[in-house]
Amino acid sequence: MRTAEHTQCNLCMCEPGYTGKNCESGYIPCSPSPCQNGGTCKQSTKYSYECKCPPGFQGKNCEENTDDCPGNLCQNGGTCVDGINAYHCSCPSSFTGEFCENDVDECALRPSICQNGATCTNTHGSYNCICVNGWNGPDCSNNIDDCVDAACFNGATCIDGVGSFYCRCTPGKTGLLCHLDDACTSNPCHADAICDTSPINGSFTCSCAVGYKGIDCSEDIDECDQGSPCEHNGICVNTPGSFACNCSQGFTGPRCETNVNECESHPCQNQGSCLDDPGTFRCVCMPVSASICSSNAPARGVSGPASPNKKRNAPTLVSRGGQFTYKSRTNDWIDGGRLVL
């Protein structure tokens, strides 16, 4: 006979041996099994059972996960995270390993963790940055303002650097702290010289332009007294801050270093070959007639008479080895050249 006690919520409280919403079914332990999470059901009496739970679970029906964290081995602030019949350690960023037992070397892991040339030193669970002069902060990224304790005078402006500062002086002042009068303000140096002021005592120094010397660069250097810079017997003439060369005949250039090529004007006639010599030239003529290289040449073996067409520095005809050569001459007045055989 089955009876049921009804509640206000219309729930049936069944007598032992019955089950179901309306206590309509006979109760058989372990059918179906009430054990969870892989537990094994075993009937102990007519109306009772026991669950044999797998490792990591507990409770009447194996419904509870056993907390494996009590007595855990996590170190260095690691947090135990429970699993199923196990646990693992969640480590802070400065430690690693199964139980957070290993210190992380931040200096090796992140070589640029310390900035601006700082030295990184690993410590237990952290690191230190040893900053170079002019920087501070945990990673040495902050430039120290050196102007905070600086003293620039006479209205100068302090400019912060790295581990240093400098004072931008107002006109007329100089020195590391702009505390001195600038001696260059009075323009003591000669024109084209560069005036530099000593930051130690404010005195001036003149850097002279080429060709000048002296404290204020006003003294002209006589380059001609130092050994003539002119070549090929050129005459040196001193000039303010420099020199000039008066070149001998046949040479040109600032130092008379260039030989004038007299053959460029093609002085040889009738297909004669011109040979340039220092300060002069020669004509090499083919031996075909007495009037070699010039239609106005004199007769063979005689000197030509003077004529209105006399030329200064005209060439001289010379016979050598079966060839005729005109050689230029200086300071002579000849008519077409003098034939020599």
TrEMBL record:
GO terms for cellular component: cell surface. It holds the Pfam family EGF. GO terms for molecular function: calcium ion binding. SUPFAM superfamilies: EGF/Laminin (SSF57196), Growth factor receptor domain (SSF57184). The keyword Disulfide bond applies. This is EGF-like domain-containing protein. InterPro entries: EGF, EGF-like_Ca-bd_dom, EGF-type_Asp/Asn_hydroxyl_site, EGF_Ca-bd_CS, Growth_fac_rcpt_cys_sf, NOTCH1_EGF-like, Notch_Cell-Fate_Det. Residues 297-317 are annotated as: Disordered. Keywords: Developmental protein, Disulfide bond, EGF-like domain, Receptor, Repeat, Signal. The keyword Repeat applies. GO terms for biological process: digestive tract development; embryonic morphogenesis; embryonic organ development; epithelial cell migration; formation of animal organ boundary; gland development; glial cell migration; mesoderm development. Belongs to the NOTCH family. It comes from Anopheles melas. Residues 26-63, 65-101, 103-141, 143-179, 180-218, 220-257, 259-294 form the EGF-like domain. Disulfide bonds join C53-C62, C91-C100, C131-C140, C169-C178, C189-C206, C208-C217, C247-C256.
